[in-house]
Amino acid sequence: MIISLVGYMGSGKSHISKILSKKLNFKLIDLDKEIVSRYKMPITEIFEKKGELFFRKAEREVLEDVLKTESDLILSLGGGTPVYYNNMEMINSQSESVFLRASVGSLFRRLLRNKSKRVLIARIKDEDLSEFIAKHLFERTPYYNQAKYTVDTDNKSVDEVSEEIIHLLR
């Protein structure tokens, strides 16, 4: 079984995927880290030097490879992954997809702490961040909502969220 975690940046995909992989004894692949490893450069550099279109094509190829070759896997996807090509359709056909849903307020608080490490929001002023998140989330939510399962993460511990996912998939 492959469990794919989808959701906006800051929704907890990376953190929850680590807990899930330990609890289920599944391998963990973070799609962004897999891309960095394959292309030997950070995502910020890929965006700067090769552009977003190159990144989205690379992301699609790596996603396809992982879904074809892995099993007993927790796959943590980038926030934009479900939006491009027919990625969400492929994710749903080859894995159990879970949308980690968080409110704009929660996402704002989480993202403000490490904004500089996030290529899409690093240059956005703090006072404009909440509006950016709300707009972006509005555009992406129709894709996230295609996931087979949805788990709300607001006011829940990582342990509570991971247990809820395990319970849903039994």
From TrEMBL:
<keyword id="KW-0418">Kinase</keyword>
<dbReference type="GO" id="GO:0009073">
    <property type="term" value="P:aromatic amino acid family biosynthetic process"/>
</dbReference>
<dbReference type="InterPro" id="IPR031322">
    <property type="entry name" value="Shikimate/glucono_kinase"/>
</dbReference>
<feature type="binding site">
    <location>
        <position position="140"/>
    </location>
    <ligand>
        <name>substrate</name>
    </ligand>
</feature>
<keyword id="KW-0460">Magnesium</keyword>
<comment type="pathway">
    <text>Metabolic intermediate biosynthesis; chorismate biosynthesis; chorismate from D-erythrose 4-phosphate and phosphoenolpyruvate: step 5/7.</text>
</comment>
<comment type="function">
    <text>Catalyzes the specific phosphorylation of the 3-hydroxyl group of shikimic acid using ATP as a cosubstrate.</text>
</comment>
<dbReference type="InterPro" id="IPR000623">
    <property type="entry name" value="Shikimate_kinase/TSH1"/>
</dbReference>
<dbReference type="GO" id="GO:0004765">
    <property type="term" value="F:shikimate kinase activity"/>
</dbReference>
<dbReference type="GO" id="GO:0005829">
    <property type="term" value="C:cytosol"/>
</dbReference>
<comment type="similarity">
    <text>Belongs to the shikimate kinase family.</text>
</comment>
<keyword id="KW-0963">Cytoplasm</keyword>
<comment type="subunit">
    <text>Monomer.</text>
</comment>
<keyword id="KW-0057">Aromatic amino acid biosynthesis</keyword>
<feature type="binding site">
    <location>
        <position position="14"/>
    </location>
    <ligand>
        <name>Mg(2+)</name>
    </ligand>
</feature>
<keyword id="KW-0067">ATP-binding</keyword>
<keyword id="KW-0547">Nucleotide-binding</keyword>
<keyword id="KW-0028">Amino-acid biosynthesis</keyword>
<feature type="binding site">
    <location>
        <position position="32"/>
    </location>
    <ligand>
        <name>substrate</name>
    </ligand>
</feature>
<keyword id="KW-0479">Metal-binding</keyword>
<feature type="binding site">
    <location>
        <position position="118"/>
    </location>
    <ligand>
        <name>ATP</name>
    </ligand>
</feature>
<dbReference type="InterPro" id="IPR027417">
    <property type="entry name" value="P-loop_NTPase"/>
</dbReference>
<protein>
    <recommendedName>
        <fullName>Shikimate kinase</fullName>
        <ecNumber>2.7.1.71</ecNumber>
    </recommendedName>
</protein>
<feature type="binding site">
    <location>
        <begin position="10"/>
        <end position="15"/>
    </location>
    <ligand>
        <name>ATP</name>
    </ligand>
</feature>
<dbReference type="GO" id="GO:0005524">
    <property type="term" value="F:ATP binding"/>
</dbReference>
<keyword id="KW-0808">Transferase</keyword>
<dbReference type="GO" id="GO:0009423">
    <property type="term" value="P:chorismate biosynthetic process"/>
</dbReference>
<feature type="binding site">
    <location>
        <position position="79"/>
    </location>
    <ligand>
        <name>substrate</name>
    </ligand>
</feature>
<dbReference type="GO" id="GO:0008652">
    <property type="term" value="P:amino acid biosynthetic process"/>
</dbReference>
<dbReference type="Pfam" id="PF01202">
    <property type="entry name" value="SKI"/>
</dbReference>
<dbReference type="GO" id="GO:0000287">
    <property type="term" value="F:magnesium ion binding"/>
</dbReference>
<feature type="binding site">
    <location>
        <position position="56"/>
    </location>
    <ligand>
        <name>substrate</name>
    </ligand>
</feature>
